[in-house]
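Quick note —
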Amino acid sequence: MENLVFGPVPSRRLGRSLGINNIPHKVCSYSCAYCQVGKAVNLQVERRVFYSPDFLAAQVEKKLNRLGANEIPDYITIVPDGEPTLDINLGKLIVKLKSFGFPVAVISNASLINCTDVQADLMNADYVSLKVDTVNPATWKMINKPYRELNLGSILDSLEAFSKKYLGTLVTETMLIKGLNDSEEEITNLARHLQKVRPELAYISIPTRPTAFTNIYAADEAALAMAYAVFSYLCVSAEFLTGYEGNEFASTGKFADDILSITAVHPMRMDAVMQLLAKSNVPESSLNMLINKGLLKNIEYNGNTFYVRTFKKLKHGTN
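Predicted structure written out below.
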């Protein structure tokens, strides 16, 4: 079983975030071209049971009890390497996690937001981030590669309806990909829809880690500046989400456990890994051993070396 609780990790949105991996590896409703954890292994939209909320809460409690005073999270964040709303027990899980006294965030691709039960579950969260990369169905299929039964129009309408009912902090995130959704027309049409959603912040991001598909490149600086200008002109509060989040990863002193749990959903840059080695007081050979065992691999991306977790292919229906 993969690591289900990881971090805390530095988050560009949430400060120090303790991550919850409530979905098995790459069970998702999208197979996004830019995904940092690889192509979807099991593409689906049916909500079902994956892990018991009681079991996940117990894992969180164990993790919290091991953290030092300077590692206490700002948020407990449900951010698996699949789509979190596929978990039919998501609402129950959120309630259990809130009992630890920390605000709970959910990072979702928004694909199931048209389901009334998904909306009801998300109402329990303190912070919800929903992906909106485009309002163009053709572009959506190229970038997000959705499950065949999904309908972008229904998702967009439901996102607007949800935003009018949700009382927590709602943000959106748009990943700009060079040559796909970074034109002025694409961005203007998206901003007009976000006018109706009225998120607290509309994050504009670019891929900063290795992507699932080749020939996927970040939009350039000119496109980012144009997107920010268009969002601002249309009164959509925007902020870039393009910088490196830092190296302040928590260490329990067990280097192998720490790096495998973090890289399961969050690739780490080489300098961050070196700092984690130092915190754990273990030699670099411990890192090389994980690579030699096939549990970890390094990838060159944009002039940086990243370490990512490797996974065996899951069988369909595996819990």
